[in-house]
Specification:
The complex is a heterodimer of chains A (about 280) and B (about 450). Chain A has about 280 residues and is an alpha/beta fold. Helices cover about 30% and strands about 30% of the residues of chain A. Chain A is built from nine helices and 16 strands. In chain B, α2 packs across α3, α3 packs antiparallel against α4 and α3 crosses α8. The chains are: A alpha/beta (about 280), B alpha/beta (about 450).
């Protein structure tokens, strides 16, 4: 049903995958996500679209190998099939805000790419800040360069590519220069938290794309509860985009860790029978 | 009906009620008075000819009994297990006045299961009318959708059911636990619908993958039935509800039932296995959650409800089973706060209640007792306090008439504000029972059939 038609390794543990899913591809919009199951005993995992083609009937996503499910996913090759893929889920990212900074940290760059592309298409004036721990972990730089961006700023923690330092430094400079009407931060929760903290003092409206744990992805279970402005929202149907200045990031990070021990034991169990040594 | 020993079963996901064998079914059927004017039939939301199917059991004609059942109910093995017979057909049985009514639900299950035990070719397959040339889309494969699909298919229409999850069955597979309704039973009933020609498409969210308009304009369906269920879980809006270890009943049950987290890590989905679990609520979903928590290995499971057992909406059989298995009932308690340490639940504060004057529902309203707060020591809290309407489909269907609370407005037959679109089940009524949803699906199917057959 959901045949893999593209696979590319972007770094040691990060992969890009393309899957045939014509009905999903027709409706996909920047910022939305899909849920997949690798096999019949698999869990449902949400992944945000990194690209799609309505004409050719495929969707792409980028994932990092972190647990048993993503480990299994790395073993699938072009021609193999996923058990399930459903989408598009969540609300699309709003575009048309004017002068925008899009911050993509780590694998968050995968989501930042179609978001920046949609903003460019809507006539926004887009600066992308691309961050990673080092040059090896930096992804999609060429793709971003091909977009009609105002500027692409690359940062690495160790200075092995672009500027040395965190994404919040150039973000702060843009805020100080009064060059932003809006900011969008996509990446690890801690990065989004600090991006929101950076823009807050300049009162630059900031959207974050959250990645809480989900099960069904259609609002039925409430696993993805996030506190936004003191109110409980469901990441899957109310988000995944929320006002970064109102999100309770501490709670989000705590909730993301609930199954850490289980995930570790499941991956250890799976890796025992696996010869890939990933 | 024979049951597994309470102590033994409380740690196992095997079905609790074992079911009648042929001798027991016959003995029970023989008690039936075969009334000239049976009152039981009017007690059934889908008007199954109860007298006739029991008569067939007495005659030793099992197959004939199945046919009588299937003429009115596409899912007898499901309904025989989960219908609240004690407030429907069995309540209307004349023997109920004199003592024990006929165990109609158990006999229904006996016939349904005897049919399921045959291979698919020898099962009772309802007669399917000549093809009408009309195509119908059914949104959701829960009780109302399956009942509607079965009926429309029998009437000769080409039916496609769209399910958002990866497995058909809706609440029958994600909500109701294995020990009450084995998933194999649901799968076999769904297989029969496929055998009748119903197409089932999983992994497809109507309102996202396709809009309602797409179904008619692009995919060419002549009519649509919406049975997408109630869906969104409600929380109490008390402090601490987003701590780790607090679940909605929907999430907890979905992880265990649909995703088979009880079999982790052989199935990949984990579930937080609490030692001390507090379940908040008094309905069947609360009972299912409490009994599931026991089976996951909890040392203690508390059922926290703000009224008394008499006011509980759960079926008697369920409260009885829960208590027997060791669930501790904490009645007249209302949670006020969930407390935690480093992000995880460590307890729940509750206020003692007493019953005051009757409220609008006619039940005596619980009233707080001053300064009566106490702490329930627990590491898991499961909120089984109801659901609200899922907005996914209605948000992309601007013309669809909704109530103030987001449920779809539909008439007696399920007709909505959009011509050619019907709805039924929880998305119309709010959370109710499997059989009421099936009844709504069937009524809509009859109305849709009439509409589809109007020339032009």
């Amino acid at each position: 049903m959901f045949r893999i038609i593209h696979k590319r390794q972007l770094s040691d543990a990060v992969f890009e995958m393309g899957v045939e899913a014509p009905a999903v591809a027709r409706k996909a919009r920047a910022g939305q996500f899909l849920i997949l199951r690798v096999d019949e005993t698999g869990e449902r995992i949400p992944l945000t679209f990194s690209d799609w083609s309505a004409q050719e009937g495929w969707v792409r996503f980028i994932f990092m190998r972190v647990g048993a499910t993503t480990h299994k996913l790395t073993h699938l090759e072009v021609g193999d099939e996923l058990a399930d893929l459903v989408g598009p889920l969540g609300r699309p990212t709003e575009v048309g805000s004017g002068r925008v900074a899009v911050v993509g940290g780590g694998v968050g760059a995968a989501v930042a790419y179609p978001v920046a592309r949609a903003m460019c298409a809507a006539g926004d004036d887009v600066t992308v800040i691309l961050g990673a721990r080092n040059s090896e972990l930096l992804i999609l730089e060429d793709e971003f360069r091909a977009l009609p961006l105002k500027e692409l700023i690359v940062c690495t923690d160790d200075g092995s590519a672009g500027r040395k330092g965190l994404v919040t430094a150039p973000l702060k400079e843009l805020c100080e220069a009064g060059a932003l009407d809006h900011a969008m931060a996509i990446g690890p929760a801690i990065m989004m938290k600090f991006c929101a903290a950076t823009t807050r003092e300049f009162a630059v409206p900031t959207t974050v794309s959250l990645n809480p744990i989900m099960v069904d992805g259609t609002g039925m279970c409430g696993a993805c509860r996030v506190s936004v402005g003191g109110e409980t929202k469901f990441g899957c149907v109310d988000g995944p985009d929320f006002d970064g200045h109102a999100v309770d990031f501490e709670e989000l990070m705590s909730r993301q860790r609930v199954y850490v021990d289980d995930e570790r034991s499941a991956d250890a169990e799976y890796s025992k029978g696996c010869s890939c040594h990933l | 009906m024979p049951e597994l020993d309470a102590h033994e079963r409380a740690r196992s996901f095997d079905e609790v009620a074992v079911g009648y064998d042929a001798d027991m079914a016959l003995a029970e059927a023989m008690r039936c008075l075969q009334c000239a004017n049976p009152t039981c039939i009017a007690g059934c939301p889908v008007n199954i000819d109860i007298k006739s199917f029991i008569g067939r059991i007495i005659d030793g004609d099992t197959k004939g009994g199945v046919e009588v059942l299937k003429a009115r109910n596409a899912l007898p093995s499901v309904c025989g297990r989960v219908c609240p017979q004690e407030s429907q057909c069995e309540a209307a049985c004349v023997l109920a006045k004199k003592g024990e009514p006929i165990a109609i639900g158990r006999l229904e299950r006996y016939l349904g299961d005897s049919d399921l035990s045959c291979d698919i070719d020898s099962r009772c397959k309802p007669d399917v009318a000549a093809p009408s040339g009309k195509r119908v889309a059914v949104v959701g494969s829960g009780p109302s959708g399956l009942a509607c699909a079965g009926e429309l298919s029998r009437l000769g229409h080409a039916v496609t059911v769209f399910e958002s999850l990866h497995e058909p069955g809706g609440v029958l597979v994600y909500g109701i636990p294995e020990f009450r309704l084995p998933k194999q039973v649901v799968a076999s009933e769904v297989d029969m619908l496929r055998e009748m020609g119903v197409e089932i498409v999983t992994d497809t969210v109507i309102g996202a993958t396709y809009t309602l308009a797409d179904l008619r304009e692009e995919l060419g369906f002549d009519a649509v039935f919406i049975g997408n269920g109630a869906g969104l879980p409600t929380f109490m809006n008390i402090p601490g509800e987003n701590l780790n270890g607090v679940y909605s009943a929907n999430e907890f049950l979905t992880r265990v039932n649909l995703m088979k987290a009880y079999d982790f890590p052989h199935h990949d989905t984990p579930v937080w296995r609490g030692r001390k679990v507090a379940v908040v609520g008094g309905g069947n979903v609360a009972m299912d959650s409490a009994r599931t928590a026991l089976r996951l290995g909890a040392d203690e499971v508390f059922l926290v409800y703000r009224r008394t057992e008499d006011e509980m909406p759960a079926r008697r059989e369920e409260t009885h089973h829960a208590r027997e298995e060791g669930v501790q009932f904490k009645m007249l308690c209302s949670p006020s706060q969930i407390v935690g340490h480093e992000g995880f639940v460590t307890g729940m504060t509750a206020t003692r209640m007493e019953l005051g004057e009757p409220d609008v529902s006619g039940r005596r309203a619980p009233v707080c007792v001053l300064d009566s707060d106490f702490v329930i020591d627990c590491d898991t809290v499961i909120m089984a306090v109801g659901t609200r309407a899922n907005p996914l489909l209605s948000a992309t269907t601007p013309d669809l008439g909704l109530t103030a609370r987001g449920y779809i407005v539909a008439d007696e037959d399920g007709a909505t504000s959009i011509s050619g679109v019907w709805a039924g089940g929880d998305i119309v009524t709010g959370a109710a029972t499997v059989i009421l949803a099936m009844g709504a699906g069937k009524r809509a199917a009859a109305a849709m059939d009439r509409w589809l057959r109007v020339p032009g």
